[in-house]
Amino acid sequence: MTGMVPAGTAARSSRALIPVALAALLAVPAAGQTPDSDATLPRTPDGRPDLQGVWTNATITPFERGNTMPYTDVAVPESAADRAVFTEEEAALLEERTNARRPEVLGAYNVWMDAGDRLLSTRQTSLVVDPPDGRVPVKAWAAADREERIARQRDDYRAMSTWDRCITRGVPGSMLPTGYNNAYRILQTPGLVVIVHEMIHEARIIPVTDRAHIDGGIALWTGDARAHWEGDTLVVDTTNFNDRAMIVTSSNGGRLKGLPVGDAMRVVERFTRVSRGEIVWEATIEDADVYDRPWTISMPLTRAPGYEMFEYACHEGNQDVAIYLGGGRAEEAGR
């Protein structure tokens, strides 16, 4: 693709180890449990791993490795500042302190907040697992563009996130945990995989095919996806993004909320079912215009058979945009 550079050999090697390491952590059974084997994992009639069902990823794990936990000001121990995984003791203490600092009941719009109360089962210190420091390598111009856009949110609807405008949370943003509605229903046929997102009730229809991507002159909000199987891992390659979205729309993404999406961006996702209860989801983002190098997010998705997904009644004509901009004008008038 124009404007993209391949990752170096060392970077590719480190990314290749990430799902293996997480799968190893997830495969360790609790006391008294019998571990799943490849032979016992559910499969579709055509022999592929069965990814179907409702999955969730609500978590208090920070997006990037940082100083505080999301939704609170609870400090991450200095001892974990340079480590990829919390110890069991650190994880238990952070969960206790974070939940104690959060209000007993949180509200947003007319729904309950449901950001989860646990770290990911992997105990990883951030959703970002590569680069090894857990920080996204953002170019200086993109960081400045993000700050300028955030500052204009109450002045121009085009500076608001596409989530606030009820358009889309984008890719990979639609798979990232946030304050509520963290559920995903996966449907699967030999030629298609469909991911229905509870947030903004969006459905990604992904062909499983060896056909090439659409013409590079066509740009889409969520890009053009193509999937294929590498062994028992579903690989989804998405290109052809437009430049009007944000890569992250939730405040849980910290300094990434508001970063631009370049027309050279490519997202490669990997879905690997490692047990009856969990899928390891990994996404590598490449955009040489916005980032100094490719970077990777990884986390488990947890099966939630009793979870009921309700309609997220959000539409592009909602009143939030006018109210938000009106609030900005009221502030300017000193009211």
Q: Largest sheet at a glance?
A: 10 strands, antiparallel
Distance between the termini: 50 Å
Residue-averaged pLDDT, rounded? Answer: 85
Count of helices? 4
From the coordinates shown, what is the CATH architecture of one domain?
Beta Barrel
Task: List the uncertain runs.
Answer: 1-21, 23-34
Strand proportion: 15-25%
CATH class of one domain: Mainly Beta
User: What is the CATH topology assignment of one domain?
Assistant: Lipocalin
Q: How helical, in percent, are the residues? A: 10-25%
Describe the overall structure.
Helix content is 17%, strand content 21%. The chain has a domain at 23-28 and 38-56 and 134-332: Lipocalin. The protein has helices at 9-27, 88-101, 140-151, 320-332, and strands at residues 53-56, 107-108, 111-112, 128-130, 183-188, 192-197, 202-207, 224-230, 233-239, 266-273, 278-286, 295-303.
Helix and strand layout, with pairings?
Blueprint: H1 9-27, E1 53-56, H2 88-101, E2 107-108, E3 111-112, E4 128-130, H3 140-151, E5 183-188, E6 192-197, E7 202-207, E8 224-230, E9 233-239, E10 266-273, E11 278-286, E12 295-303, H4 320-332
Antiparallel strand pairs: 1-5, 1-12, 2-3, 4-12, 5-6, 6-7, 8-9, 9-10, 10-11, 11-12
